[in-house]
Every structure is written in structure tokens, then in C-alpha cells.
């Protein structure tokens, strides 16, 4: 990750024997700042440090606030516009801004105060909901501004979060941390949207939306307060603006392959992240149905993440990711029979069951690669920026394809084929990651 050398060798695919002796040392690069306090024996899922738990708490509050209102922002905009293409443009602006924010904020996180970057990301999320409240019914007219603000908040938060996550975990605790993060996210996703749907339906719709956006704003403020209990973390080195370009140009580096896998992962996320919730609302016309959908699917995801986080070991990652990727594609097929609440719920349950098998190995392996040797660990900020740029490139491509197809046709069968094409990208992600899992 970060290093004073401008011409270090990038980590290539190596045998476990070559990397193993040094791997644990470089993963502990932040030791003394809270990194991996209380290590574990190799091959075992290690305990989480106090700083890891605090980081999970901040992540949980961030997830809860977004779960309360995140899906309903898209519904709110769709109800005002009745245009799926506009939601696509809103999402495209969000991802583009997030990518640019990651790249620019990398210097702040590397050379200055990464904790302030994380807090600022949470604060801008609060600002986003303040703007939605202020604009009210006119919010749809400001979708570009809202997309920019939301993209900035996500970029700042997730850049700082991922750097601190790398520093407070090691290979032995990383799968457990990811399992707990998924568990908290699923718990928030289970309860918060159901509460939001209940409030919107029971109250006058506009009043209900204002209430849930206000609650989200308050939760984000609490997240900022909790973040002050995280220790200020040391900085070292200078930010290398063009490391991503230099790294991807080199043939003998695992990052070229990993970059393609991350783009494939983002290709699905860019569209499915907003489309499934919207389809539930479009086919039911009820925010309560969307809340029930979130309740059921997140309850399944909660259990799935808990089990996967406990049982997944590095040696199982390749097989687990293949099973997860294949199942994420197969669960799309019922849409060709009929798209209604039942088939959408079937999809949601299937995704909740199998996404952890795909997502946890993907995330853990990439972060293990970042910590694979001294030079890459020292440039962790640049490599995390590279990871996010690849993910957002995929999200942008997927969303752009979505907008392009819907500009020509909104026929249900065309949308089904579009969802299948986009939803098949996990297979490509596994294909490019299969050798990385073996190192």
C-alpha cells in the first residue's frame, strides 16, 4: 500500500510458501495503533480487537441510517418521476462522484487525518438527508446534486473505513470481521426498512418520508460521535496519485487480474443495488411490502453471514466463491416465468443465502493481497483506492448499460435479459479470482 519508494515491485501471484513467512508481519503494520490486538494462531479465525469492535459499531450505525432511508430514496424519486432511467442517472452520478472522491481523498487519508475523513463522510451523509428534507417534493429536480452529495459521502466514508479496517485486522481475523460486518448490515437491513415502510404507510406518505429521513440524519450524527472513540491513526509516506495506472500497466502483477474481478463484482452491484427494491415497490405499490421484503431477506442474510463468517477459512474461499457466484446467477431465472412479489422474494432469499459465500472471500482475498508484503502494505491507501476505482468502474459500466437498454425499450422481457446479463458477472469475478485464492 504506501511506501516511500516510487518504484517498488507490485505483488504478483506467488506461492503460499513464498508469502507466508512475511504475510503476518506486514498485516500487523499498524500494531500499536490498535491493529489486530490479541492475534491468533495461523489458520484460526482470530478474535476481534477493541478498535475492530468500535469500527464495527460505526459501520453498524452507518448501515442502519442508510437502511432506514436508502432504498426509500429511490422509491421517493421514482414516485415523483415514474422514470427508471432517471433513477439510473442518479445512480450513475453517485458512482462517478464516489470514484473521483476516492481518488482525490486518498491524499487526505494517507498524509493527514483518516479519522476526520471517515467522520466527514458520515456528516455529509447527514447533509444528504437534510437536502432531501429541504427539497421535499422537488428533490427529483435536483437528482444530479443529490447524487453528487451521496457519492461524496460514500467515497469519504468507505475509503477511510477500508483503510482502518485493514489496519485493525489481520488474515486470521479478517473473515470474522467481514462476517460481523455483514451480520450488522443484515440486522440493520432487516429492522430499519420494515420500520420505515410501517411509518410511511401508517402516516401520510409525505410526513412518513420526512420522518424517516430525519431519523437517518440523527443516526448519522450519532455515528460521528461514536467515531471519536476510535484512536487517531498514524500516517506515513506520500500519496502516489498514479499508482493505479502504473500497477495495471505491469504484466507480472496480480492486480491486473484482481482489477477485472472487482469490475465484474461492481458490474452487478451498480444495478442490483437499486433495481430490486424498486421492482418490489413497482409490482406491489406498497412501501410496507418493500419493508417486509427487506425484513425477510435480511433475516436470512443475517444467519448466512453469521455462519459464513464463522466457518469460512482461506482454504475454502475458491470453492465457496464458485458456489455463491453460480447460485447468484441461477436465482435470476424465475424472473423469466413471472416477475411478482413471490419471485422477487425468492430472488431476495437466494441472494441473502449465497451472497456471503461470494462476497466474503472476494473482500478478504483482496485485502490479504494488499497486505501480502511490506511494500504493498505500506501503500495500503493507494491499493484501497485502486480497489474502489475498479469496483466503481464496474458499477458505472453496469449502470450505463442499464440506462442504454431502457432508453430503447422498457419491455419486461428485455429487462429480464438485462438483469440476467448483468447478474451473471459474479461468474466472471470468480474466474479471474480463482488463481488468487490459491496463493
TrEMBL record:
Its main location: membrane. Residues 1-45 are annotated as: Disordered. InterPro entries: MFS, Sugar_transport-like. Keywords: Membrane, Transmembrane, Transmembrane helix. Residues 31-41 have a biased composition (Gly residues). This is MFS transporter. The lineage of its organism: Bacteria, Bacillati, Bacillota, Bacilli, Bacillales. It is found in: Cell membrane. Pfam families: MFS_1. Signal peptide: none annotated. The chain crosses the membrane at residues 54-78, 84-105, 117-136, 142-165, 177-201, 207-230, 258-281, 293-312, 319-337, 343-369, 389-408, 414-433. It comes from Paenibacillus allorhizosphaerae. It is a multi-pass membrane protein.
Amino acid at each position: 500500500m504506501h511506501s516511500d519508494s516510487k518504484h517498488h515491485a507490485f505483488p504478483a501471484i506467488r506461492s503460499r510458501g513464498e508469502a507466508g513467512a512475511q504475510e503476518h508481519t506486514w498485516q500487523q503494520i499498524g500494531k500499536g495503533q490498535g491493529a489486530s490486538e490479541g492475534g491468533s494462531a495461523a489458520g484460526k479465525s482470530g478474535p476481534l480487537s477493541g478498535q475492530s469492535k468500535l469500527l464495527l459499531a460505526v459501520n453498524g450505525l452507518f448501515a442502519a441510517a442508510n437502511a432506514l432511508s436508502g432504498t426509500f430514496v429511490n422509491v421517493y424519486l421514482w414516485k415523483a418521476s415514474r422514470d427508471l432511467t432517471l433513477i439510473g442517472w442518479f445512480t450513475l452520478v453517485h458512482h462517478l462522484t464516489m470514484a473521483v472522491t476516492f481518488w482525490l481523498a486518498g491524499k487526505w487519508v494517507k498524509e493527514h487525518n483518516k479519522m476526520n475523513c471517515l467522520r466527514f463522510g458520515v456528516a455529509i451523509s447527514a447533509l444528504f438527508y437534510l437536502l432531501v428534507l429541504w427539497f421535499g417534493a422537488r428533490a427529483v429536480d435536483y437528482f444530479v446534486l443529490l447524487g453528487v452529495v451521496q457519492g461524496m459521502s460514500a467515497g469519504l466514508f468507505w475509503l477511510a473505513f477500508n483503510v482502518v479496517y485493514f489496519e485493525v485486522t489481520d488474515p486470521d481475523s479478517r473473515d470474522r470481521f467481514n462476517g460481523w460486518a455483514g451480520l450488522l448490515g443484515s440486522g440493520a437491513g432487516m429492522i430499519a426498512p420494515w420500520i420505515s415502510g410501517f411509518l410511511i404507510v401508517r402516516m401520510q406518505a409525505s410526513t412518513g418520508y420526512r420522518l424517516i429521513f430525519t431519523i437517518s440524519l440523527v443516526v448519522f450524527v450519532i455515528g460521528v460521535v461514536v467515531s471519536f472513540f476510535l484512536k487517531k491513526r498514524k500516517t506515513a509516506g506520500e500519496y502516489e496519485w498514479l499508482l493505479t495506472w502504473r500497477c495495471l500497466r505491469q504484466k507480472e502483477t496480480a492486480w491486473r487480474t484482481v482489477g477485472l474481478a472487482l469490475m465484474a463484482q461492481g458490474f452487478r452491484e451498480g444495478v442490483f443495488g437499486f433495481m430490486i427494491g424498486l421492482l418490489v415497490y413497482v409490482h406491489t405499490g406498497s412501501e410496507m411490502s418493500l419493508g417486509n421484503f427487506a425484513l425477510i431477506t435480511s433475516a436470512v442474510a443475517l444467519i448466512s453471514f453469521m455462519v459464513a463468517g464463522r466457518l469460512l477459512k482461506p482454504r475454502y474461499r475458491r470453492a465457496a466463491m464458485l458456489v455463491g457466484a453460480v447460485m447468484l446467477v441461477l436465482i435470476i431465472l424465475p424472473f423469466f416465468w413471472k416477475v411478482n412479489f413471490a419471485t422477487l422474494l425468492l430472488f431476495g432469499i437466494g441472494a441473502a443465502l449465497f451472497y456471503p459465500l461470494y462476497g466474503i472471500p472476494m473482500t478478504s482475498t483482496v485485502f490479504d493481497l494488499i497486505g501480502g508484503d511490506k511494500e504493498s502494505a505500506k501503500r495500503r491507501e493507494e491499493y484501497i483506492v485502486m480497489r474502489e476505482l475498479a469496483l466503481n468502474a464496474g458499477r458505472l459500466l453496469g449502470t450505463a448499460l442499464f440506462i442504454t437498454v431502457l432508453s430503447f425499450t422498457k419491455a419486461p422481457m428485455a429487462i429480464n435479459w438485462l438483469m440476467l446479463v448483468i447478474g451473471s458477472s459474479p461468474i466472471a469475478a470468480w474466474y479471474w479470482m480463482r488463481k488468487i485464492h490459491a496463493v
